[in-house]
Structure formats: structure tokens, C-alpha cells
Design brief:
About 20% of the residues lie in helices and about 25% in strands. By secondary structure, the chain is of the alpha+beta class.
């Protein structure tokens, strides 16, 4: 099983002192780690590329549990997983502290993601952070974050 470091800061993605804006909205980043205890040949074939580190950009004004729920809603809208039970998915704030998502019974994660439609999801790859959002590409994203993970 892989170990994933969760220590990061928003400043490390866009350069110290820069804020994250999209269409005049300020964002916070939520790190999503997806791990599996299964061997690759035990996973559903379409799920093989799912494990990894993702980052969601969600509105800055959201409190931790709603930010995590919004991030997970955006993640699940854009990263299909056939057998969810094969994975452990956790969320972390910009300070590396675990974020506990709002209860799915009280807050519809997909509705939160739709409400905050400008939120984005990125996947960490060998080439750097790649936009994994299925809707129109982020107009101001050049595919490069300063990676400190």
C-alpha cells in the first residue's frame, strides 16, 4: 500500500503571496487521497487508474465539513468509480489537517458540487497537476502548479 503525504499549502501551488481566483471568486484547496488495499488485478478494470491524489478548488468561504463535502461531490461527478468499496477516500485542508465531510444524509454532496459549479478537480500525475473536471476546461489554468507534495 502506498503512503501519501498530505502536507501542502495553497501558496505552494500558485507561488507565495498569490491568491487563487476564478471569475473573481476566492478558492481554498481540498486535498483528496484515494487509496486501495487491493492488488491491481483485483480491481475492476476501469478503476485501475483511480488511486492517487486529487485536489479540489472550492469557494474559500465554505467551512471545513462543507468544503470537504463539496470537494467529494465534485470528485465523484468527475472520477467514476465502479466499485467504491475497494477504496478509502479521505479529504484534507490546506494545512494538512483531515477534513471530515458533512454527513451525506444531511447534505447532498452532488447538490453542493452543483451549487458551487465553479469548483474544479485536479489529479496529480507524473506530469504535474492535470485538470480532471469533465465540464469545460478552466480558462485560466495553464496546467502548471508548483508541486510540493
Amino acid at each position: 500500500m502506498n503512503t501519501i503525504s498530505t502536507s501542502f499549502s495553497s501558496a505552494s501551488f500558485l507561488g507565495a503571496g498569490q491568491d487563487m481566483y476564478l471569475h473573481e471568486e476566492r478558492f481554498q484547496s481540498v486535498l483528496i487521497t484515494v487509496v486501495t488495499g487491493c492488488d491491481e488485478d483485483e480491481l475492476y478494470p476501469d478503476d485501475v487508474d483511480v488511486p492517487g491524489v486529487y485536489m479540489a478548488l472550492v469557494p474559500e468561504h465554505l467551512e471545513e465539513s462543507i468544503a470537504a463535502a463539496t470537494a467529494l461531490g465534485k470528485f465523484h461527478q468527475n472520477v467514476p468509480i465502479k466499485r467504491l468499496f475497494d477504496f478509502s477516500i479521505d479529504t484534507f485542508g490546506q494545512n494538512g489537517r483531515p477534513y471530515i465531510p458533512a454527513d451525506g444524509d444531511d447534505h447532498d454532496w452532488y447538490a453542493l458540487a452543483k451549487l458551487h459549479a465553479s469548483s474544479r478537480i485536479f489529479q496529480r500525475t507524473a506530469q504535474g497537476w492535470q485538470d480532471a473536471t469533465l465540464d469545460l476546461p478552466w480558462p485560466h489554468f495553464d496546467g502548471k502548479f508548483e508541486d510540493s507534495l
